[in-house]
Amino acid sequence: MITVDPGFDRDEYDRWLEQARYTLRSAERDLDACDYAWSCFKSQQAGEYAAKALLRGYGRLAAGHSILRLLEEMRSGGVAVDDVTLSRGKLLDRHYIPPRYPDAYPGGSPFEFYDEETARQALEAARSLLDWLGKMGEHQ
């Protein structure tokens, strides 16, 4: 079970969480510039970095790009990850490949499939996830 641990690697946690916050700010700028596909991808990346921050702080392997899987890894380690947080991870995971690759769609280019509402939903999910993971790390 993951508990408050004097061996928690604060430097590694902070390093990854700062990258998550930086990437989230970039996603916000992309939204303002109407680059919705990139905003969604960067929101996913911010969530992924934040999830990896907590796991790496605990010295756990943080492999892969699925936020859902990273959150499930936390849960299996004893972190109380609720269903709302898991849902945010699922939403963000949808934006890992499709915003970047034209062959993710039967025709057209990724930017044609993203809009402001989708980007705002992804940003809100990422913000909430970063807030939650930030609070989890504060207790270490």
The biggest beta sheet is recorded as: none
* Helical proportion, percent range: 55-70%
Which superfamily, in CATH terms, is the homologous superfamily? Nucleotidyltransferases  domain 2
Q: How many DSSP helices?
A: 5
Q: Could you outline the blueprint of secondary structure elements for this entry?
A:
Blueprint: H1 10-32, H2 36-57, H3 67-76, H4 83-93, H5 116-138
Which key features would you list for this structure?
single chain; 140 residues; mainly alpha; Four Helix Bundle (Hemerythrin (Met), subunit A); 5 helices; 64% helix; elongated
Explained architecture:
With 140 residues, the chain is mostly helical. It has a single domain, classed as Nucleotidyltransferases  domain 2 (Four Helix Bundle (Hemerythrin (Met), subunit A), Up-down Bundle). α1 packs antiparallel against α5.
A few lines on this structure:
The protein is 64% helix and 0% strand.
